[in-house]
Structures are given as structure tokens and as C-alpha cells.
Specification:
Blueprint lengths: L1 H11 L3 H14 L23 E4 L4 E5 L17 E3 L10 E2 L13 E9 L8 E6 L5 E6 L2 E7 L5 E4 L9 E9 L29 E6 L2 E3 L9 E8 L3 E12 L5 E10 L5 E12 L4 E11 L4 E2 L3 E2 L2 E9 L4 E9 L4 E4 L3 E4 L2 E3 L1 E6 L12 H14 L3 E4 L6 H10 L2 E5 L15 H18 L5 E8 L3 H5 L7 H14 L5 E5 L19 E4 L12 H11 L5 E6 L26 H15 L5 E6 L5 E8 L2 E5 L13 H10 L5 E3 L6 E2 L3 E8 L3 E6 L2 E9 L2 E8 L3 E11 L2 E11 L6 E4 L6 E2 L5 E4 L3 E8 L23 E11 L4 E10 L10 E6 L2 E7 L1 H5 L5 E10 L4 E9 L2 E3 L1 E6 L2
Parallel strand pairs: 25-26, 25-32, 26-27, 27-28, 28-29, 29-30, 30-31, 31-32, 36-42, 43-45
Antiparallel strand pairs: 1-11, 2-3, 2-5, 4-34, 5-10, 6-9, 6-11, 7-8, 7-10, 12-14, 13-14, 14-17, 15-16, 15-20, 18-19, 20-21, 22-23, 23-24, 33-34, 35-37, 37-40, 38-39, 38-41, 39-40, 41-42, 43-54, 44-45, 46-47, 47-52, 47-53, 48-51, 48-54, 49-50, 49-52
Helix pairs in contact: 1-2, 3-4, 5-7, 9-10
The structure holds alpha-D-glucopyranuronic acid (GCU).
The site of alpha-D-glucopyranuronic acid (GCU) has 10 residues, from loops.
């Protein structure tokens, strides 16, 4: 028997393969592993066999996605023509590369039916049977052998039904599940189930594990909002002692009152018992649940100290009959730690200040959608840890248990959340009773199922709860529900602060409830330089919010930018980004994060900053970058195969691991022969060579190392970077090609990704400029049917422009050049409204140019060619307005033959 208990310890240590083996062994031995039931040192021999059994219900399901089916729950229903599937499962498939939705996509939101024939494991007479679903999306109706067991509303929490009355312990059983993920609207089954909407796809199905759990009639409660039935509360921690209160809920499903003994033990990581207590309980009336308290003292407590030392104890509660037989045993992780959120100084773990450097995560993968495995979740946390993050936001809903377990084991602080997203009703009115009740249920499920995880530091009760009212400029009344949920969280778990993420705080708008301050802390979701404004707007906005809410600890709960792996820019400052469309050059995401992190790290009053998002994720409202149905603000691709450049910016800033990453490896075929080379590194300096030639060393600041104006060679360019980081030699390399010819430069002004003209001449994106602003004749997110076209032989060469007072310094060898400038008048409605001069190397070559007049009107292309000489390796073209602002759409420079 000792073998079994060591295996149980293995499970607590998070070893999945071992976990599966244990489940098999214990199923064989009739012991429930997931709760880590067999506590070491428990020498109660044969009694153990009575402990609970968990049988996975994974294989052999028949499935059909269809509306309007009836009689499916009946044993005789013919499902012979249905698909055979394995659970976890979803029928949806969302998100693909390319600009069109793939024919393999399935975004049907409706009902899916599952039917499973199974036999229960052998168990002592009088055993009790529970069906457990770790999650079904969104509304689940469950039948066993034709008997309706119950309905669960909510896509993200574990739920259980007592199946004892309906189950056939010695023969075949038929389990039927109807899953409904209909898009919420008035009258749908999902109309009162948060979320009513969200920027993530609600996959349908039994997308997490399902199992049958067999217990003795007296057992730890199985029906407490899907919770483990035993709950820890660390009531005091001093250097030499810690006190832990354990609440155990015991259910007597026997037909007569029962007396029992409750053994509560706390085990150290090496399985040694460090504290224990035994108490007699009962008689517990038949059918009653009794709540028992015990208090344990741990000498010389070893704290759970985040990344540096995520030390875990285990609490094990064993129920014994009056005769000493083991009736049930449940184990839970225990971490001893204190957390504090201070409005001026930020976050403290065990009294130590920590800036929470984090990235948020959704739970989806290509093809399998939400039906992710334990290994997937472990990989996600391994990538998060590699980034150097010390926290994560599991958005916008309860994730699978494995994620919280891994966070505990890795020492990652967790922002845990319920899916109250965007709105509380369809019409801006306060939440109705049914919706509020379900939000409370989902909050209680989140808390009861995750409160024993030391990694969880906050309960989030909402995300952008007034976004939809803001978008439709309508009323927003979420305050009453937020107050209710905040109070519920505080009463259920007084030891953790509450929070929510705000998107749209405005002052003095009477149509909308002010909400900041309704929870203990707040997070701001802000996207300056993406959806609105400029990068630099973030600092002042945060300082103002801090001043407005001096007693509310605050964080930035979302900030981020999209990045496509196949779209690139020579200079991401060159033109406007289209946040809701294409293209999303990877370089813009780099720029966004470099600028935003520089602002965030300088604000110690912030308790954390959460990058949106760790991974690209499915969202069927998105047509962005180079993907369809995907939000690509991830630092890592959805298949987890590609870490985007910005990932390494943070690794260089956040991680202590030696990091050296040359930026731009996916932009191979370069448009310009002279460019800046950048690396992200936590080295103090990095050396660069190009095709074996030394380019020199660059000092690195804030994780960025820059080599200005590196000259590429025609053809292949092998760049090699090397550095010594704390005695570790690190290197990185990439390959670029340059097909351009010396002295030839073709620029598409105001454009972010460049263009290959009708004459096959390639124009790089806007580059070498200083001053002015890049714009398009159509604002970035103009709907295609509303876009205006420029009248020209090759209209696209004129559909963007730089405007203002600006110049270009083109790095070309000294000599004579033909410079062709193309212009379009974007806005003036008459000649004379815009007049400007163009000089090259100080020589005025286009005097008092009036594009409207020259082109014969607005939105008509016109080009001017001048001859010029380059000196000191450059052609400097200056655009100086006389009236209004100067403009230019493209520049083509060719050596004069
Ligand atoms: C919001 C929202 C996210 C969404 C993100 C985005 O802030 O909370 O769910 O994905 O913005 O627009 O990418």
C-alpha cells in the first residue's frame, strides 16, 4: 500500500503521466486520485479500498450537432449514424491563416448531443455515484438512463450531479448530454448566462474531462458549487508559526445518522506530516451535510513565495467510520503566503514588493479549440515562465483546474475571473434576476473550486462591463450587479481582494453608472497607439486615474497590439495602423510594446501590467493581420510554434535568462539596402557581424540594442549577433536578402508595409523620413465599399501620403540622380489651398507646388521628376509648406544614367 501513497504524492507534484498511471492504479485499487486521497503515513491498510473511485468518461461517445432533435435521452433512440468522438470535445473549429474563412471552419452555435453507454466500476453496495463535468459549453442538460439529472448554465466551471438514483451499478448505463452554445439573444437558452458577448469564440461541447465518481455513502461533500469540499484559510503567519483553518463539508447520504472521525493533516512537500488533528463528528443526520472546522499550527512555516520558491504543502482530510475504516479522503494544495495591494506602492507577496509583469491567456488552440489537454496548459505556462512573467490573467473566465495547479507549482500569481463581459443586458438596463443569479453562481463556482490555490491572488468580477453601451452610446447600469458580486466575493473569501477590468471610464456621464471603486482594486484595459490616440497618452491617463482614485490600487489589465507573422514594415512609424483590419506588421507590435512598457515600468503605484495577450486566440469577429477569426495580439502564435519578436523584448526585460534575439527574421526580403538592425537582449552590449564582416558593438538599454544605418549587400545577408551575459556566451543569427541596386530607393510614403507597383517596381514602406505624419486617403478602418480611389494609372501608388513639414534623408552614394515624386491632393477642394516647396540637398527644385492645380483636382495623381546630386552619402529632400501642409505619396530615386 505504501507504493500507492507515494504515487499519490506524485500527483500532488503535478506529474501528468504519473497522474494518469495513478488514476489507473487507484481506479484499480478503488481510490480517488485527483484529490490525492492516500496520505503518506496513513497506515490504515485494507480500509483504503473503500475510498472514492474516479472513472474517466472519455471514449465511446456518439455525437451529433443538430437543432430540434427530440427523444434523444431515450435509451432506444437510434444514434448509430452519429459521429464517434472522444471527450474533451467541441464541434466548433475557428480560426485560420489567410484572408477568407477556411471551409474547415465550423462556427455553428446551437445544440450538440452526446450519448455514451458505460458500465460503472465495481463498488461496494450502497456506494454513491456522481457524474462530474469539468466544463460544458454553455448550457448543459444531462440525462442518465432516460432520467433527467439536471441542467447547468455556465460554460467554464466544473459541475456534478448525484446520479445514484438513476445509475445501474451492475449493468449498462446510457448518459445523454445536450450542450447548447447558442449565441445569446433575448429568448435563447443562453440569454441569461454570462457572457452575453465577448471578443472570443464560445466553443460548444463537453470540452473538458467528464468522469464518474464513486464514493461511500458518507463522503466529503460533492455538491458545493463543484468545489473539493475542504477549504483552507491561512489565518496567521509569523516567522516561527502559521495557523491554518480547515473547513470540511461532510455529506451523509446513508439512510441513517452516522458518527465518524475526521483526520485533518498537513503534509510537507516531502510528504512528512507537519500538523494534524483528529476529531469526532456527528451523528450527522441522514441526507445532511455537516460543516466541520479544524485549526492546525505549522511550526517554522515554509512560505509559498512566487517564482523564487513556490513551496506547496498539502492538506489531506480523511473520514473514518466509528470502526476506523477509511470512508473518504480528499487532498488539496496549500500555500502559506500573504498578499497586499497598496494604492501607492503596488503589490506585495509575503511583505516583499513585486511588480506583476504578466500576460493574459485564453484557453484555445488551433483545431481543438477549447478542448485543450493538460499538456497544452503546461506548455502555456512554460512559455509564460520563459517570458519572465511572474503573473497571468486567466481571461475572461474560469480555466481548467490544471492551469491553477501549474500556476501554484511554478509560483505564478493568478488573476482569476468570471465571464461578466461587455454588458449585463441586451438593452443597457440593469441585469435581470436570472442573469444576476447566474453571475453569482459562476462566481461561487470560481471561488469554491479555486480558493485553495495559493497562486490565485484576486477575484475579478467583470471585464469591460460597459463596453457595448459605450459602443452604442447607450445607457449602462451594471453597478447594482457589481456591488452584489463584490459583496458576495468578500463574504465568501474575505482574504482575497476583488477587481475588475475597466475599458471605458468617463466622468459625469449620467447615462452610465460610475464603476471604478466598486471592487477593491481596478485594472484598466487601454490600447493607446492601437485603438485610439498615441502610445504617450497612456502615462497621463494612468496618472489622472490614480489621482482620481487615490485609494484604489490599480493595474493595467490589458494593453497590446496585433502582429501578423507574414506582414512587415520597414518603419512602423511610417503610417497609420488599422486596428480592426489588415495589415498588422509585426514591427508595429514591437514598437507598441517598447513604448508602452517604458511608460508602465515607471509607475510604481501600478501593482501590475498584463499584456494582451500571451497567445493569438480565436474570435469569429476578427479579420485582421494575415488571419481570419483570430485575434493576433498574442506574443506567441496560436499553435505556440512562433514566439514573435516582441516576446523577446519582454524576455530581455523581464527574465534573468540570457536573452539575445535579432529582430526581423520573418521579414527576409528587404526593401531597403540601408537600415537599422535591432536586437533584444539583457546583455550590456552585443556584437554584430554581417556576412562575417564586423559591424561593431551596440550598447543595450531597456533590452534594446541598435545598429544604425547598416548597409546590406545585394543578395544574401547573414547577420550574426554575439554577446556575453553573466559569463554565458549567447548568439543569434538571421538571414535577409536584398535585391535592390545601389543608389536605387523607392518609398511609399504614409504606408506601413510597402507596395509592388503595376510596373513590378517594389516600393518599401515609408522610411528615412523625419517629421510629418503618415496617412491614407482612406482612414484605416474604412469599410471596403466606402473606400475612395485616386484617379491615376496605378492608383495604389497614390493612396497614402506623408503630410506636414518633413524631410527624407536617403542614404545613397554620392552622384547624380533622377528623383520622381508622386503627389495626390487628399483634402483640398480648390487650387491655392495647399502650396509647398521641395528642395533637394538645399536646392529648391519644386517651387510653390500646388498639387490640386497640377493634378487638375482632388484625389488625382500627379508626378514630378527632378535631377539632383547626392553629397556625403545622402539625398536630403525637404518639403516645406507655404500654405497648409506639404504632402508626398511616393519617392523613386534612380542613379542618372
Ligand atoms: C478588450 C477585451 C478583450 C479583447 C481586447 C482586444 O479589451 O477585454 O477581450 O480581446 O480588448 O480588443 O483585443
Amino acid at each position: 500500500m505504501m507504493l500507492v501513497s507515494r504515487l499519490a504524492a506524485g500527483v500532488a507534484g503535478g506529474n501528468v503521466r504519473l497522474r494518469a498511471a495513478v488514476l489507473a492504479v487507484m481506479a484499480l485499487a478503488g481510490v480517488h486520485a485527483a484529490a490525492g486521497t492516500s496520505a503518506p503515513g496513513d497506515s490504515a491498510g485494507a480500509g483504503d479500498a473503500a475510498v472514492r473511485v474516479q472513472m474517466p468518461l472519455a471514449n465511446g461517445w456518439h455525437f451529433k450537432q443538430a437543432a430540434g432533435l427530440t427523444g434523444v435521452e431515450a435509451p432506444q433512440f437510434d444514434d448509430s449514424g452519429w459521429d464517434q468522438v472522444t471527450v474533451p470535445h467541441t464541434w466548433n473549429r475557428i480560426g485560420n491563416e489567410g484572408y477568407e474563412r477556411s471551409p474547415e471552419s465550423n462556427n455553428i452555435q446551437g445544440t450538440g448531443w452526446y450519448r455514451l453507454k458505460f458500465r460503472a466500476p465495481a463498488a461496494p453496495k450502497g456506494s454513491h455515484y456522481f457524474l462530474q463535468f469539468d466544463a460544458v459549453s454553455t448550457v448543459a442538460n444531462v440525462w442518465l438512463n432516460g432520467h433527467f439529472l439536471g441542467r447547468h448554465e455556465g460554460a467554464f466551471a466544473r459541475f456534478r450531479f448525484d446520479a445514484t438514483a438513476a445509475l445501474n451499478p451492475s449493468g449498462d448505463n446510457l448518459l445523454v448530454v445536450e450542450a447548447d452554445n447558442t449565441r445569446p439573444a433575448p429568448g435563447t437558452a443562453t440569454a441569461n448566462v454570462p457572457p452575453l458577448s465577448g471578443d472570443f469564440f464560445m466553443f460548444g461541447g463537453i470540452y473538458r474531462n467528464a468522469s464518474l465518481i464513486v464514493t461511500r455513502p458518507v463522503h466529503i461533500d460533492m455538491l458545493d458549487f463543484g468545489g473539493p469540499g475542504i477549504y483552507e484559510r491561512v489565518s496567521a503567519i509569523q516567522a516561527d508559526a502559521a495557523t491554518v483553518q480547515i473547513t470540511s463539508r461532510v455529506t451523509n447520504n446513508d439512510c441513517k445518522p452516522q458518527r465518524l472521525r475526521v483526520e485533518t493533516a498537513i503534509l510537507a512537500a516531502d510528504d512528512k506530516v507537519v500538523a494534524s488533528t483528529t476529531s469526532d463528528a456527528g451523528p450527522i443526520a441522514a441526507g445532511a451535510v455537516s460543516v466541520l472546522q479544524s485549526s492546525l499550527n505549522i511550526a517554522n512555516p515554509h512560505l509559498w513565495n512566487g517564482l523564487s520558491d513556490p513551496y506547496l504543502y498539502r492538506t489531506v482530510v480523511t473520514l473514518r467510520s466509528a470502526k476506523g475504516a477509511v470512508l473518504d479522503r480528499v487532498s488539496q494544495p496549500l500555500g502559506l503566503r500573504t498578499i497586499k495591494f497598496d494604492p501607492d506602492q503596488g503589490f506585495f507577496l509575503n511583505g516583499e514588493h513585486q511588480y506583476l509583469k504578466a500576460a493574459s491567456m485564453h484557453q484555445d488552440r488551433p483545431v481543438k479549440g477549447w478542448a485543450v489537454s493538460d499538456a497544452d496548459q503546461e506548455e502555456d505556462f512554460a512559455i509564460l515562465a520563459d517570458l519572465g512573467a511572474n503573473a497571468t490573467r486567466l481571461a475572461h473566465y474560469q480555466h481548467d483546474q490544471r492551469s491553477y495547479e501549474v500556476a501554484d507549482a511554478k509560483g505564478i500569481i493568478v488573476w482569476a475571473e468570471i465571464p461578466l463581459v461587455n454588458k449585463v443586458s441586451f438593452d443597457g438596463t440593469p441585469a435581470n434576476a436570472a442573469f444576476s443569479a447566474n453571475a453569482r453562481q459562476q462566481l461561487l463556482e470560481l471561488i469554491q473550486q479555486n480558493r485553495n490555490h495559493p497562486s490565485v491572488a484576486l477575484w475579478s468580477i467583470a471585464n469591460e462591463i460597459d463596453l457595448t453601451p459605450t459602443q452604442v452610446k447607450g445607457p449602462s447600469r451594471p453597478a447594482s450587479l457589481l456591488k452584489e458580486l463584490n459583496a458576495l466575493a468578500k463574504s465568501q473569501d474575505p482574504d482575497r481582494p476583488t477587481t475588475f477590468a475597466d475599458c471605458c471610464e468617463v466622468e459625469g456621464n449620467t447615462q452610465r453608472d460610475p464603476i471604478v471603486g466598486l471592487a477593491d482594486t481596478v485594472g484598466y484595459n487601454r490600447y493607446f497607439g492601437w485603438y485610439t490616440g498615441h502610445f504617450a497618452d497612456l502615462g497621463p491617463m494612468l496618472d489622472k486615474a490614480h489621482a482620481r482614485h487615490p485609494r484604489t490600487p490599480m493595474s493595467v489589465s490589458e494593453y497590446g497590439a496585433g502582429a501578423a507573422l507574414t506582414q512587415h514594415s520597414d518603419d512602423p512609424n511610417g503610417g497609420p495602423i488599422n486596428p480592426h483590419g489588415r495589415p498588422h506588421p509585426e514591427e508595429y507590435q514591437n514598437l507598441y510594446h517598447e513604448a508602452s512598457w517604458a511608460i508602465l515600468k515607471q509607475r510604481p503605484y501600478l501593482w501590475g501590467a498584463f499584456i494582451w495577450n500571451m497567445f493569438d486566440f480565436s474570435s469569429d469577429s476578427r479579420r485582421e493581420g494575415d488571419l481570419t477569426d483570430v485575434n493576433e495580439k498574442g506574443l506567441v502564435s496560436r499553435d505556440r510554434k512562433v514566439r514573435k519578436d516582441a516576446f523577446y523584448f519582454y524576455r530581455a526585460n523581464w527574465s534573468s535568462q540570457p536573452t539575445l534575439h535579432l529582430v526581423g527574421r520573418r521579414y527576409v526580403d528587404r526593401a531597403y539596402g540601408v537600415l537599422d538592425v535591432k536586437a533584444y537582449s539583457n546583455a550590456s552590449q552585443v556584437h554584430l557581424s554581417l556576412n562575417g564582416q564586423d559591424v561593431g558593438a551596440a550598447a543595450c538599454a531597456d533590452g534594446i540594442c541598435l545598429w544604425r544605418a547598416v548597409h546590406l549587400q545585394s543578395g544574401s545577408n547573414n547577420l550574426q549577433a554575439t554577446a556575453d551575459i553573466g559569463g554565458a556566451a549567447v548568439s543569434d543569427s538571421l538571414q535577409w536578402t536584398y535585391a535592390g541596386k545601389p543608389g536605387e530607393v523607392h518609398i511609399k510614403a504614409g504606408d506601413l508595409t510597402g507596395y509592388v507597383a503595376a510596373d513590378h517596381q517594389r516600393y518599401g514602406s515609408d522610411m528615412y523620413f523625419s517629421g510629418g505624419e503618415g496617412k491614407g486617403v482612406n482612414p484605416p478602418d474604412t469599410a471596403s465599399e466606402k473606400r475612395v480611389n485616386v484617379e491615376a494609372a496605378d492608383p495604389q501608388l497614390f493612396n497614402s501620403y506623408r503630410i506636414g513639414t518633413f524631410s527624407y534623408r536617403l542614404p545613397v552614394p554620392d552622384g547624380k540622380y533622377k528623383v520622381t515624386l508622386r503627389f495626390v491632393e487628399p483634402t483640398a477642394s480648390a487650387a491655392g489651398e495647399r502650396v509647398f516647396n521641395v528642395s533637394v540637398n538645399g536646392k529648391l527644385l519644386l517651387k510653390k507646388l500646388d498639387v490640386f492645380a497640377a493634378a487638375g483636382g482632388k484625389l488625382k495623381g500627379v508626378e514630378k521628376t527632378v535631377n539632383a546630386s547626392a553629397h556625403d552619402g545622402a539625398l536630403v529632400i525637404e518639403f516645406a509648406p507655404e500654405k497648409a501642409e506639404a504632402v508626398v505619396s511616393s519617392i523613386a530615386v534612380m542613379p542618372s544614367r
